[in-house]
Each structure stands twice: as structure tokens, then as C-alpha cells.
Amino acid sequence: MTSTPIEIIAASGMTDLAHRVYQRLDQQRFGYIAVEDHHFPDGEMKPTIPEIVRHKEVYLFHPMYPDVNENLVKAGLTIDALTNASVENITLVLPYLQYSRQDRIDVPGAPFSAKFVAQVLQLSPKVEHMLPMDLHVEQIEGCYDIPVENLYGAVVFAEHFHQLLHNDFENVVVYSPDFGGAVRARRFAKMLHPDVRTF
Predict the structure, then answer these.
(1) Would you say 86 and 38 are in contact if contact means Cβ atoms under 8 Å apart?
(2) 66 preceded by a cis bond (ω within 30 of 0)
(3) How far is it, in rounded angstroms, from Cα 44 to Cα 137?
């Protein structure tokens, strides 16, 4: 395989998305590698990187759902494997970031779970950047010591609904499932039409 300076690394559960992104890129500059998973009888797992990635920039596409706890451990192990493989740096691509709703200590004796997840994901100094999608609340970015670029799925959905509804939004209302999503709901409504109401 030709050496490339940037590698798209796909953890299991993200191979389809990661490969579709890779296919849209300049393949003279980007490579694609799927993480290999090994499981032991006691439930332990060992993700391994099957190709040499020394001194390369890495974009790690990793699922954090549906098993949020197992995937957090697996993400940490994969980051450690990449660090041990001497990559130049790691950008985490995490379409879903678990524990984002636990963005504060709401009762005495409770954990600050969002901050804990941030600490786990940043254990390696090689992790220099993160690309989550539609964070529950934007203050989650403050839990991280690295740049976090929150990607908005609303951009794609707005285009879809413009086509679906032929730009007729007279009877459209955008509802937020909870208080934390209110800002995202208002932003999405404005993308559709200035007169779309939110609740």
C-alpha cells in the first residue's frame, strides 16, 4: 500500500460512514484502515491497527452508541493503540458523544460525567482535535482542553425538508425534546424559515 500522510481509521460500527467519507477524499493524500477487534472469553477486548501508521495524522471514526460504556472503553483502548503505534496526532470523529446530558453536578454526590468522559478521551497527548455532532449543549466543549468543532446535522436536515415540503413551512413547528435541545431547535427552525415556531 502506498504511504499516505493522513489515515482514516474506522472502528467497527463506523466502517460504512468512514469509508464513504474516504471515497470523497483525495486518495493520493488519504488512506483507509479498519481496526481489527479481538475478544477474549472473559469479555476483554483488544482493538489493533493492522497497518503501520507511524508519524501519520489520523482521523479516528469511532461509535459511542448503542453500548455507551463498552464503546468508551474501546475508544480509549484504540486511542492507546494508535499512540503506541507512534502516530503524529489523532482527531476523534464521534457522531454521538455519550454522557453529554450529564453536563453538570445536579445533586450532591453525583459525578460530573461529561467531564470524566472528556478526561478519558484526552488521556493520550496525541489526541489534538475532536469532531462531535450535535452536542446536547455547547458548553460541553468547555470540558475539553483541545479544539472541539461541533458539527451540525441540522444543515443536512434543513435541505432535506426544504425539498420534501417544497419550501412550504406554514404548518411546520419544531419541538425540542428537552430544555437542553431548545437552542438547537431554534437554530433549526431559522434554517427552515424565519416564521417557523419552536416549542
Answers:
(1) no
(2) yes
(3) 33
Strands (E), 95-188: 127-132, 173-174
Provide the phi-psi class of 134: left if phi over 0, else alpha when psi is between -120 and 50, else beta: left
CA distance 71 to 35: 14
Identify the CA nearest to 7 among candidates 65, 46, 49, 48.
49
CA neighbor of 14 nearest in space, from 76, 59, 45: 59
Give the pLDDT confidence of 57-112 residue by residue, as tens digits.
999 999 999 999 999 999 999 999 999 999 999 999 999 999 999 999 999 999 99
In 3D, which of 155, 150, 156 has the Cα closest to residue 100? 150
What stretches of 24-153 show up as alpha helix (H) in DSSP? 68-84, 113-121
Alpha-carbon distance of 92 to 164, in angstroms, equals 33
Q: What is the pTM of this model?
A: 0.89
Cα 77 from Cα 46, distance rounded (Å): 7
